[in-house]
Automatic annotation (TrEMBL):
Top-level class of the enzyme under EC nomenclature: transferase
Entry comment, domain topic: Consists of three domains, a large central CORE domain and two small peripheral domains, NMPbind and LID, which undergo movements during catalysis. The LID domain closes over the site of phosphoryl transfer upon ATP binding. Assembling and dissambling the active center during each catalytic cycle provides an effective means to prevent ATP hydrolysis.
Function: Catalyzes the reversible transfer of the terminal phosphate group between ATP and AMP. Plays an important role in cellular energy homeostasis and in adenine nucleotide metabolism. Adenylate kinase activity is critical for regulation of the phosphate utilization and the AMP de novo biosynthesis pathways.
Assembly notes: Monomer.
Family under the similarity heading: Belongs to the adenylate kinase family. AK2 subfamily.
Protein name: Adenylate kinase
Positions with a binding annotation for AMP: 31, 36, 57-59, 86-89, 93, 161, 172
Part of the whole protein covered: 70 to 286 of 288
Gene: ADK1
Length: 217
């Protein structure tokens, strides 16, 4: 399976991707997670990226394209395919991705866009809790951990992302509509785009996704 999973902030990309990964034995490459790793390490790139992320903008194409390219090249988990989560985010990134995949003779099979109305996303984003080490996400209301603020698996504390404020969310959404909506059109023209109603429960969204992948087998 070679998949681009698109959708606005809080659409459920990070919630659905682990299920797809497990089912299809592919790697899950999330540029946002990779950038947050850099922030945690305190690298120069991390420091630069944090400012941009907390302001809802996009980190430079060169950096994110480089990160994806090197994972596709070197990560053994990507041998049977991949899920790209949060990449590409503009048409330049989409074109570069096509070039990289053409060289490997492994073109994209699906670009699936999780569709949710902007106003539904506020509560999802402001209630999100994250286990930083694994990337597991919970929600205060919609998917609460067994013990408050504690990861179910490791017992470690959960945190909120620094860009998960209502104010930054509006900027992220504005960036999404300006830069990433055209990526959906790009994939529609190529005939590999499918939209999924992601306002439904995670279980229902997963059912719609697996149907798309099964039907095209
Ligand atoms: P990134 O990490 O990609 O953030 P995002 O796109 O804003 O998406 P989120 O991670 O917020 O949402 P999600 O869809 O994964 O939602 P989740 O499943 O967690 O990027 C962050 C930043 O990095 C960007 O702003 C940019 O600055 C930079 N960046 C990243 N990639 C880049 C690139 N390619 N180029 C340039 N810059 C880049 O769900 C959210 C919450 O809702 C959770 O609490 C969950 O439990 C809950 N939930 C999920 N599904 C449901 C449901 N069906 N019903 C109810 N609740 C649900
Ligand atoms: Zn995510």
């Amino acid at each position: 399976l070679r998949l681009v999973l698109m959708g606005p902030p809080g659409a459920g990309k990070g919630t659905q991707a682990p299920k797809i990964k497990e089912t299809y034995n592919v790697c899950h490459l999330a540029t946002g997670d990779m950038l947050r790793e850099e922030v945690k390490k305190g690298s120069e790139l991390g420091k630069e990226a944090k400012k941009i992320m907390d302001n809802g903008g996009l980190v430079s194409d060169e950096i994110v394209i480089g990160m994806i390219g090197s994972q596709l090249e070197n990560n053994p988990e990507c041998q049977l395919g991949f899920i790209l989560d949060g990449f590409p985010r503009n048409v330049t990134q989409a074109e570069k991705l096509d070039e990289m995949l053409a060289k490997r003779k492994q073109p994209l099979e699906h670009a699936v866009q999780l569709l949710v109305n902007d106003n539904l996303l506020v509560s999802r984003i402001t209630g999100r809790l994250i286990h930083p080490a694994s990337g597991r996400s919970y929600h205060k209301e919609f998917a609460p951990p067994k013990k408050p603020m504690t990861d179910d698996v490791t017992g470690e504390p959960l945190i909120q992302r620094s860009d998960d404020t209502a104010e930054t969310l509006w900027k992220r959404l504005e960036t999404y509509h300006k830069q990433t909506d055209p990526v959906a059109d790009y994939y529609k023209k190529k005939g590999i785009w499918t939209g999924v109603d992601a306002a439904q429960s995670p279980k229902t969204v997963w059912a719609s996704l697996s149907k798309i992948f099964e039907e095209s087998k």
